[in-house]
Every structure is written in structure tokens, then in C-alpha cells.
Amino acid sequence: MNVDASGSPTVGQDTGSGPAVLSGPRRPQAPVDVTATAVVATAANSATAANSATAANSATAANSATAANSATAANSATADVTTGTVITPGTARTTTAVARIAAASPQLLVVAVILAVAAGALMRFATPSHLWLDESLTVAIASRPVPQLLDALRHDGSPPLYYLLLHAWIAVFGDGDVAVRALSGVLSLATLPAAWLAGRRVGRTAFQAGNGGRDADAWVGLATLLMFACSPYAIRYGSETRMYSLVVLLVLVFGLATVRALERSEPARLAMLTLATAALVYTHYWTFLLIFTVAAFMLLQARRRPQYRQVTLRAFAAMAASAVLFAPWMPSFLFQMLHTGTPWAPKVQAQVLLDTVFDWAGPTSTGALLGIVLLGGALIGLTARPDGRELAVKVSGRVPGRYLAAIWLVPLVLAYCVNMFGGSAYAERYTGIALPACLLLASLGIAQLPGRRVRAGVLIVASLSGLLGGWQLARTERTQAGEIAGRIVALARPGDVVAYCPDQLGPAVHRAIERHGEVTVREIVYADSSGPALVDWVDYADRMKRANGTSFAAEVNELAGPGHAVLLVRADGYRFLEGACAVLSDQLATLRDRTVQVERRNLYEGASLERFSTLR
């Protein structure tokens, strides 16, 4: 199904009204052959020299002189009988080199693409960081028997699909750091063929609507493949034991299933759409925002375009049927919505919508460069189509760019509104629901650029900057849990007490301690009875407000007794704890000698370690 510039399904070219041309008059686009250009230029110069030499020889030379000149010419130049061009040895070597490069350019492009994809793939498995809070929580939950796993998720606030996959993965490959992260890496690699297929579909739709060249499907497919392979976001979360790589993969599957169902309402295609929708909501609750956006668009199209009403309503019904599959989880979902939430999340400003693109693009200057490429490519993909060697711009947007822009932006705007008025979190890692549409739109824009060299140059810049940003993210230590656990193992004696304030520091350090083997310490967590391996998010804010550092200090001191030391894992600045952890430390210091063993560093999850000796 094709759609015209006003949003109407149609077939043929999107003519628009009064498209703006970026520069100069329109003229047909012709491919530039570097080798041919060099030969023609050489021919022009050689022909001029030959004419001058002929005139001089005709005036003065005898037959013998002509013979001598002919012999000299034979030694100094080579004649091209096909073009009438005289090519000197130096020019011949240059022309041959250019010809070889031109002939080898397709092979060079293939090699470059393979290297970029391979580099991005390796980075997904190359992080040396210890597991941080969310990863440690995920592994702790997924390692439990399935009934306990599902019960733990009620207190965690997440849907179960990724945890069940990880549960099966751990049963086969174990729960080591590399092993548990490898699942996300494999899922992230699985997005690459799906992204390539989605890119080709977008390019083909652009061509059918008159908004792309004949090779648009090949170029958009290639650009999308590179964008996903080299995406810092994809690399970052392809190396983390969380569900975000699965979200990105399922969004692509959902998009392809939706398009196929809208093309033809076959039972198999509708069933695939139902399964894809159910898989999304069983993976992350933010996917509801994407599903609502697509469903609203379908209903709008069904109302505005009666001729497509039947196929659109069938696709909508297939999406709605996923509610039947989600019904068994509905009691847990409602409990989570009422009691868990994201109490750690602050309010965000509207600029977060722009910041999200640069967050996807990675850190420092390379991220800024890739962010500019993404935004510029998205703008071209939304508004422009090729017109010879120029771009014809339509401010109201073109097909399919306007739909990709809506799928990219509307869910993020809804998430921002929920954060402002509903208290839910707006976190960069959640925004993977909108990443595929943004990368597809930017890839479409790159494919619209006039000239293969320009497109290739932009893709090189995007790929290199993405890989540099992804490498930095993959190699960065995310938590001090490993450092702190190593120090605890070195210091602690059997029976010593390890206290965590806040409780959110417990899972990562506890897991790192366990990885050292048999350590006989007793662990206690601030205002959380679930133990150090988990965090109970049920009514979290109210529970933290009721607790206080002074009471917890007395509890920790009594547990340690006079013969054992206290090791406090501490970090200030967490929401709803106010200064509780500082109060805890000061209260223990009035009873025992305090020494700082590990200073807090500026990491994603930094913390300090303080040792309080036996009672004075």
C-alpha cells in the first residue's frame, strides 16, 4: 500500500504542490565516470598538441625528418586507437590506477561494510565492566525457579518475557558475567537482518511513492544495516543483561508484521501481528506507547479512507487480539502499576526529546557528530526527494518519511507527558521503542542525497563516529561493585557485617562478593527486608520516607556486636533517602573507629566503602 503526501493511500509519484528546490535549475542526473573523464581530458590536450605538431612538421620537415619524428613519437607516447587519444606514460599510469579503483569500488564497499558490521558485532561482547544494579537484579530474578521468578517480578515492576528467556539461557550457559550478557548480544545481532529488510521496504515504498530513486531500496537497506550495526545505543545495550536489545528487535518485527498485514489480510499475517504485539508488551511496558500510536493511526486511516477500511480494521483487530494473550499477566500488571513505578526518576524538561537523539549517538564529540548526522538525515528523509542532482523539499513531509517521523516522535512525546503528569520515568534506555524509526528515517535521508560519493562519505562518517562512541561505552566501567567486593573479601573476617545504604547498592556488590567464592559475612540492607540480592520496589518511596539512619545504625551495631566489624557500602544523593546514609555513617562513627577503604568514583554507579572496627 502506498500513501500520498496528504496521508492518502495511492499509487505512483508524490507530486505535491510547489516543492522547493535547494539550488539551481532542474537538470537530469547523469552518473559521472571518473575514468572516462580522465580519458576525455587527456584526449583534448593530446589532440591540441598533435595538431600543432602536424602544422609545424608540414611547413619544414622532409621525409627523413618525418621518419625521425615518427620514431621519437613512438618511443615517447602511446596511441589509443579507439579514442584517437595520445596518452603519455605518466598519464597512462594515472588513468590505469583510476580505472582500477573505479572497477574495485563495489568490492571495496562490500569489504568496508563487512568490517564495520564485524566491529560493531564484536563490541557487543567486549565489555569488561561488572554487572551493575539492574543487571544484577535481572540475573538474580532470572536464576530462580519459574514460580519464584514470576513472584519476584511483581515486586520488581517488569513484564516476564526477557526474564524467562534469560532463565532458559542460564540453564544452558551458566550465570557468569560474559554468559548472561551474551544473550543480549545475540538478540542485538538478530536485529541486523531485520533492520536491513525494514530499510529495503522503506526504500521501495519511497520509490513507489515517487520520493526515491530506483536504487532507493538498496541504499536505504545498506544505510540502515550500518546504522544499527554501529549504533552506540545498540552496542551499549547489546552488552548489558537487560531487555532493551529484545525491545529493539521486536519493534522491527512488529513494524514488518504491521506492513505485511496492511498489504494483505491473510490469517497467517494477522496472527504474526498479534504475536508480535503480545511479545512487545510482555517485554517492556513502554511499548504500549508505540502500540497506541500505531493503533491510533490505523483508526484514523480507517475513518478517512473508506476504501482501505476493511484491511486497516482487520490489522487493528489483530493487534487488539494480543490482549487475550496478555490476560494471564494482567493481575500482576495491575499490581505493579499501583505499587511499583519508578520512584528514583526525576522530572524531565521538554528538551529531553532532542537530548534523546544525542544520547543514542553516544558520548563526547563523536556522539555530537553522529547526532547531527541523524537529525540531518531525518530531516531530509522527512521532507526531500531526489530531483536530478538536487533535492526537492516539501515542508509538510513526504511518504514514507512522515510516518516514520510520527512513529519516532509521538511515543517519546507521550512518554514525556506521562513523566510530567503521571510520575513515570523517562530514561534513555527505555527509548529503544523509538530508535528503529529514527534510524530508518535517517537512512532514508542519506539515501536521498545526490551522488554515490556523498552518500558513501556520510555513511563512513556515521559508521566511524558510531563505532568510536560504542567502543567507549562498551569499555567503560559502570559500577564500583567489583572494586568494593574485592576490598570486602580482603578485609572481612567470618561474622563481620556488610551493610548497604541505599538498598540499591546491594545486588551488584552482593553478586560480586559471591563470585569470589565462600565468604562468611552477614549482609543487611537499609529499609528492605528482601535481602541484598533484590530490591523491593513495592511502595518504595513511602518505605524510604518512614525509615531513618539512626534506627538502622543501632540495628547494624547490635547485629555486629562487640567482636565483629561493620563494612558500610554507601552512596548519598538517592531520591527519598535525604541524608539517611550520611546519618547512618556518623552514628556508627560515634560507636566505632571509622576508616574509608574505597573512595567513591564518578561512575554510573559509584559508591564508597567504610570500615567500622569492633566496639571501642
TrEMBL record:
Swiss-Prot/TrEMBL keywords: Cell membrane, Glycosyltransferase, Membrane, Transferase, Transmembrane, Transmembrane helix
GO biological process assignments: lipopolysaccharide biosynthetic process
Transmembrane annotation, as ranges: 108-127, 218-236, 243-262, 282-300, 312-330, 360-382, 403-424, 430-449, 456-474
Span of the signal peptide: none
GO molecular function, one term: pentosyltransferase activity
InterPro entries linked to this entry: LipidA_mod_glycosyltrf_83 (IPR050297)
Membrane topology (UniProt): Multi-pass membrane protein
Residue spans of biased composition, Polar residues class: 1-16
Keyword Cell membrane attached: yes
Compartments, record wording: Cell membrane
Region ranges (Disordered): 1-29
GO cellular component, one term: plasma membrane
Keyword Transmembrane helix: yes
Any coiled-coil regions, as ranges: none
Record PANTHER family: MANNOSYLTRANSFERASE YKCB-RELATED (PTHR33908), MEMBRANE PROTEIN (PTHR33908:SF11)
Protein name, UniProt field: Membrane protein-like
